[in-house]
Amino acid sequence: MKTYSLKASEIEHKWHVVDAEGVVLGRLASRVAQIIRGKHKPTFTPHMDGGDFVVVVNAEKVRLTGKKLEQKQYFRHTGYIGNEKFTPLSKMLATHPGRVIEKAVHGMLPKGTLGRQVLRKKLKVYAGPSHPHEAQRPTPLSI
Partners of 57 in the beta sheet? Predict the structure, then answer.
């Protein structure tokens, strides 16, 4: 039996819309990462971008479990000695709710050029209920 490898001409990308209202962040990020990577398709090829586009709406209404809202912090470094910056999840959710979902999905993708490319191209996150991708006719996805 031969192993099937997807060709670039056979790739077809669909659009999905996900409502994040009341959905637990980790479960949402896990399912979105699977879809934008293409692992839900029987033609999954690890070295190619065969995933679908995902539009996440209502990012500000995502649900968090436990004490994450008070305890979880996002880390970044400016590049200078001793300049570590910690941003609490509550502040990040208030100012940039889309970044919370983007960072969660980024943590579940492969670390490399394909993972960065898939995240940048395939994931669209919006804080409110509206999005500018109605022309692509996305199918609603329940998580």
Answer: 19
Fold for domain 14-141? Ribosomal Protein L13p; Chain: A; (3.90.1180)
Structural domain boundaries in the chain: 14-141
pLDDT at 143 over 90: no
Q: pTM value?
A: 0.93
Query: If you average pLDDT over residues 75-102, what whole number do you get?
Result: 96
Tally the C-alpha atoms within 13 A of residue 87's C-alpha that lie toward its C-beta: 15
Write the DSSP string, 45-68. Answer: -TTS----EEEEE-GGG-B--TTH
The pLDDT of 10-35, averaged and rounded, is 97
pLDDT given at position 51: 95
DSSP 93-108: HHH-HHHHHHHHHHTT
Burial of 43-53, coded b for 16+ CB within 10 Å and e otherwise, reads eebeebbbbbb
| Both structure tokens of 5 | 């490898």
**34 within 8 A of 72, measured Cβ to Cβ:** no
